[in-house]
Design a protein that fits this description.
There is one protein chain. This protein starts with a helix and ends in a 9-residue tail after the last helix. It is mainly alpha-helical and about 280 residues long.
Length: about 280
C-alpha cells in the first residue's frame, strides 16, 4: 500500500495534471509527470478522464517516448489497450520498438489480431516491429518464452575469473541488472551459474569451471508462466534462465515479472470464485 504521504503527493499531482489538461497545457503536464516513476504515473493517469488520459499520455510520449512506453507496460491491460487502439499502426510500431522485447510482447497481446498482422508487414518499415520482437511472438502467450527478456548476459565456460570480470565491466553500460552470471559452452548450452560474490572472492586466474555450480534451475520456453512464477517463489530466486529444447540459453525471467504473473493469477482466481469472467467489467 502507498504511504499516506505518497498517496497525498499523487493526489495533488493528479489535480495539477487535470488542471493542465483541461487548460490545454499538455506540455506542462508532461514535464510534471517526468518527475515521477512509471508506476506512480499510472496511478495519476488513472485519476483522469479517458480523453484527458490520452492527451496527457501523448504529451508525455512527445517529451520522453521511453517513459511513456514504460507507463503503458505498467498499466492494467484494459487501460493500455484503450490507448494502443487509438494510435496509428506506425505509432504503435514505433512505441513497441522503444521497449524491451518482453514488455513489447505483453502489449502486442492486447492488440487486435488484424493490427498485429499489419505490424509484421515488411513492405512498410514505418509500421513494422523489430525482427527480435517478431521472433518473440512465435512463442505461445502465457509461456516463459513470451515472458522472458532476451537481453541475458552469459559467460563462456573457458574463461577465468579475471576475464569474466572484464567482460562484465565492458557490458556494464548495456546491462539493466545482473543477478546471476550464467555460464555457457561454445554452443550456448547452459552449463553452470556463478554469483557476483564468487567473482569477487576468487583469484583472477581461477577458471570459471572450478567455481561455477552445475545445478542450475531453469525452465523451457514452453513452460506455463504460472509454473515459472511459482519456481521463482519456491527457490527464492531473483531471476530464472530460460532454455530451448536443446538446453541453449535464450532468455531470462526476473522476479518482478514473476510478481506480476502471480498477481494476475490471483486476480483471475478471485474473479472465478465470484463467478465473474476476467474480460467482463465489474
Amino acid at each position: 500500500m502507498l504511504s499516506m504521504e505518497r498517496a497525498r503527493k499523487l493526489e495533488i499531482a493528479t489535480g495539477s495534471i487535470r488542471k493542465f489538461a483541461q487548460g490545454g497545457s499538455l506540455p506542462r503536464a508532461a514535464n510534471l509527470l517526468k518527475k515521477f516513476r512509471s508506476a506512480d504515473i499510472v496511478e495519476i493517469l488513472d485519476g483522469l478522464g479517458a480523453q484527458e488520459r490520452m492527451g496527457v499520455w501523448k504529451a508525455l510520449r512527445a517529451v520522453d517516448a521511453r517513459l511513456a512506453g514504460d507507463v503503458l507496460a505498467e498499466m492494467p491491460e484494459r487501460g493500455a489497450a484503450a490507448i494502443l487502439t487509438e494510435l496509428s499502426p506506425a505509432e504503435v510500431a514505433h512505441m513497441l520498438r522503444s521497449l524491451p522485447v518482453d514488455d513489447a510482447a505483453h502489449l502486442v497481446s492486447l492488440l487486435p489480431d488484424e493490427l498485429v498482422d499489419n505490424l509484421q508487414d515488411e513492405e512498410d518499415l514505418d509500421r513494422t516491429i523489430s525482427p527480435e520482437l517478431a521472433g518473440h511472438l512465435t512463442y505461445e502467450e502465457e509461456t516463459a518464452g513470451r515472458l522472458m527478456t532476451t537481453d541475458v548476459f552469459a559467460l563462456a565456460d573457458n574463461l577465468t575469473v579475471g576475464e569474466a570480470t572484464r567482460a562484465l565491466q565492458e557490458r556494464a553500460d548495456h546491462l539493466e541488472m545482473v543477478f546471476y552470471l550464467y555460464v555457457v559452452d561454445d554452443r550456448r548450452h547452459l552449463v553452470g551459474v556463478v554469483s557476483l560474490r564468487q567473482l569477487l572472492l576468487n583469484p583472477p586466474a581461477t577458471p570459471l569451471r572450478r567455481i561455477m555450480s552445475e545445478d542450475v534451475i531453469s525452465v523451457r520456453t514452453e513452460a506455463d508462466q504460472e509454473e515459472v512464477a511459482q519456481s521463482i517463489a519456491r527457490y527464492n530466486l531473483l531471476a530464472l534462465p530460460v532454455v530451448d529444447a536443446e538446453n541453449r540459453l535464450v532468455g531470462l525471467i526476473t522476479v518482478d515479472d514473476a510478481i506480476d504473473v502471480l498477481r494476475e493469477e490471483a486476480t483471475e482466481d478471485l474473479y472465478a470464485l465470484a463467478g465473474v469472467n476476467v474480460a467482463e467489467s465489474l
